[in-house]
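Before surveying the methods themselves, let us examine one representative protein, pairing a chain with its fold in token form.
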Amino acid sequence: MSGIYIHIPFCKQACHYCDFHFSTSMKKKDDMVLALAKEIIMRKNELLDSAGNENQIETIYFGGGTPSVLSNDEINFLISEVYKNYKVVENPEITLEANPDDLSTERIIELSKSLINRLSIGIQSFYEEDLKMMNRAHNSAEAINCLTEATKYFDNISLDLIYGIPGLTDEMWRKNIEIALSFGIPHISSYALTVEPKTALRKLIDTGKIAEPQDEVASNHFMILVEMLQKSGFIHYELSNFGKENYFSKNNSAYWLGKKYIGIGPSAHSYDGEKRGWNIANNSLYLKSIQENILPIETETLSKSDRYNEYIMTGLRTIWGVSLERIETEFGLDYWNYLKKQSQKFLNDDLLFIENNILKPTAKGKFLTDGIASDLFYLNLED
């Protein structure tokens, strides 16, 4: 089973914290939709196995950018191109990332009549001051209204929340989570506010206009989030993702479980089990290349150490953990011995534990997962 990710590189305005690839100019939107459709066709043979059999597509994911800036006709056109050129399972998960300001009642009803069966809504916060600080395109009232309407027409909805925002108290953060839970949403993705280089947020902090986010505050918000969502029946199945039973994101789970996927559009990434690829992150150059029938993609073949490190990172972030048996059989005894040695200090400090030969982070270790994983990476093995 495989997935297709379609990157829509347009946004109405730039959020201060975002370092994803997008443009706020819609001038090339029509050309881009045609180019995305053409890339879908150009890459239709990439998912064939060694015997020439097609890998079935079980997820289609519109990410970005802001995919909801596309019209329903444009979205349906791209979905139809996938169906024409790939073998799609009977009930695929088809997700549209959307912002509240794009989700009027009329738009939601239209989307509910399409093949889109999952919405991922970028709420981020229900507080006006947070939304203004982040330069979000929507306001708090639009966030409430869109969830009120979306839940009438869609069962499978995810929403995003950001914690660790300067000025966001524990009480305010609890209220954010309570409001989200009040809509009966079955999936929540939540991330710490991170300050990326060359973003507006970095500049605002450097000029003293916004306070630097504090790790201690973010860590406390994370613990509150985990406690409240688990009490409400959510399963913490990945570091930043919580889902009710049967509502895990199939698209994201495929990434973490190492399944194959194709990334369509500028800056989109792909993986075929051995090689990673990434498209050029420039709209004009992407369009020019596709129009000339050239795939604007660079690839790298992953070494054994690369694959080991990726498995450590993704495994520790998920409920599936890192299988010590798989480490030994797939990577060899040297890797197994190295992992046992490197993980010992984290086991002693109650940040990791082993259960049924699976290495996992403890409740205390979860917030520190990425740092722990980097200490377990194998950097010096020759493949």
In short: The longest strand covers residues 88-98. The chain has a mean pLDDT of 93. The first helix runs from residue 29 to 42.
